[in-house]
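Review the following:
>
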Amino acid sequence: MTARLVPQLGCRSDQGEAAGGMGGLSALVSGPRSWTRLPPRIAEGKGGQAAHATRITCLIAVILACCLPTPIPTRADDTVDVEMIEQEAFRAAVDRVAPSVVRIETVGGLERVGDVLFENGPTTGLVVDSEGYIVSSAFNFINRPTSILVRLPDAALKPAQLVATDHNRMLVLLKIDTEGPLAVPEFAPGAEMRVGQWVIAVGRTFEGDRPNMAVGILSALGRIWGKAVQTDAAVSPNNYGGPLVDVHGRVIGVLVPLSPGSTEEIAGYQWYDSGIGFAIDGEHVMRILPRLKRGEDLYPGLIGISLQGKNPSLGEPVIVACRPNSPAGAAGLMPGDRIVEIEGREMVRAAEVKRELSRRYAGDRVQLVVLRDQKRMAFDVELVAKLKAYRHPFVGILPMRTTDDQPGVAVRYVYPDSPAAAAGVEPGDRLVALSGRPIRDRDELLAQIGRFQPDEEVELEFRRGDQPRSLKLKLAALPESLPPAELPAARVDVESGSDEPGGDDPDSDARPQVGTVWLKIPELKNDAWAYVPQRYDAAVPHGVLVWLHDGGGFDWEELVGQWKPHCDHYDLILVAPKAAEPDRWRPTEVTLVERLLDEISSRYTVDPTRVVLHGHQGGGALACLVAARHRELVRAVALVDAPVTGQPPENDSLDRLAVYLTTAKQSRRRDAIERSVDRLRGAKVPVTVKDLGETPRLLTAEEQAELARWIDMLDRI
């Protein structure tokens, strides 16, 4: 039997595309009985109101009569029973597709995938070829079952083989041997789909000879970056892999869990039965069927660029980072290029570029037209399934964080034995250009350095006092070592020349709250606190440290007492939420962390290079999940006695990630932590490992101070 999930950790993601499109009719019909929530019928009355009601009722009856093989039901007074007609129409549609809907059972497999536990239970498949080919949702098989069985509508039980997987749209193709041809359903033409039309989500998981079904509307087209349609019908493991059909029984799509903000195997499962469901367009399924039948696994096509802005719907299609060892880099695309066309389609927003590329597969070739220095340039790019692991290059400096009107980056600290130190760069120098490109500020330097790789030679222009200088240096890789015992101040007040705050008037009504701040997300019951340094200055970006406790909770006064000196010294905001249940974190609390980070960013000036999730044991699992979902937001994860869960993150040239892990000889998690280190280093993610000795424990005061310095150095270049 296949897996029925029991969620432990998860979140609803609003990144990228809004889910939208909820509402409409919901109904569940199983076997001979039905339960429906229907719009109220127009009350019978006198005069014009009654005549209007009669006309509408007759119109509905005429439309639905086309779908029914039996006479229209009427009441004793010969008036049309609209509710009964609707139910009969839905059942007739399901009866038409039912011979092609099969029940799938699996045996064996993993009990846990990531942070999701699986229980045994049947699921659904759809016949797509009379010779025994069946398509289903890949979610039903991510626990890698040892055996797959298919029960046909006539109750025959057949062993099945998994032929191929579409990893971009999360579909699988199965094959069974049959004595005769299987029934293949009719597929609805995509051109006939209309938002608001009735649809029915069909599964075959309950006992009995009839499929289970849920009725709703077609909420939206082209969701999940152009890969799926959306419905408000109840979609869950009961019908994953089954068809979404119209009132004629024609297949609109195949039901799968998906999320616009994640490509994980389990992405989208947390929305089951929520009124947000997705289906892969049936016409697309039939187009890729020949490739799947050949045993060809399909993967999302990757190009290796990052676009301007954190919100694709608002950002412009301007390349801000281009992986040097990616298809885009090999083709000649560069930061600063504005994408104006893809395959002849005009691009205006970053979301349009993401939509056009995300729906394609590895191996597809696309033609992009970019605007560079007001000239149109065309590039032919072949997408790949996996980008080569990218190791971030390293000059060897820490930048000052004082905001002033001078272009360039002032050097705060030079790493010993770094390329910058070997070339003679000194604290106080101001970097003004990299390989001929001017540098406005730190963020631009970080984007420019992402064009290169370790061991490449670059030319660095800088000013020492009034004297311009130029030198060449060979880039290194980001270091993994623990920080030194002392670091120079990261900011100096421009007017006074001191390291005390000078930008905000402490008595100003416009100044945000400092010290201990109670945070509350209205729709969540969790308590959360923040500590903001008393010397907070909006002109200086502050790092954010989110502490995620293990079971048992924490004492805020004790925690803030430990971290207050470090927050004051390193311009760091401490955020500490409490789990709703003291012994564990729940799925909604992923959303809690996201909302708390949004709240802090809306009130205070946040340094995007120093946003850190710090978790102990179970809190570490939540930290990993949030970091995986929000690579554009989280820059580091610091875990105490906790391994990194899930797949190693993609090391993006723009959105850097660093990991701090502790290890102890007697920790029962030691082997998992050591495997995490190996996997992260294989993905070229810098990992700093702190040995705590024999017994796993929380950090001492000295170790917390060391971690604070590690966080303070995350904006290294």
